[in-house]
Design goal:
Jelly Rolls; four-stranded antiparallel sheet; 10 strands; globular; mainly beta
Amino acid sequence: MINPTNIDNVEAVKALEGIYRKTLMYNDDVMLCFFSLKKGSEIPLHNHVSHQIGYVLKGKFELITENNSFIVREGDSYVFNSNEKHGAKILENSEVIEVFNPTRQDYK
């Protein structure tokens, strides 16, 4: 990828109904993504090898794990460990930045 990358120059990819991703920057070890989440959409419980850290830019959604659920809103951050099952219910139109380590091959 070319440095720097501006979010306005990256085309959004529809990941799921109401869930759109822009892969902003990555190397072999780490990946930075922007997600736009539409109210009423859902991300089913899933897992992946990459650790995942997120920061909520705006909106509100419920994050769900096998053992817990919690609400995050603007200014909140969260982390999921490698292979930890997680999903989400989007309660308001939301935007989030997420970092994955290692890079997710399926998001390139």
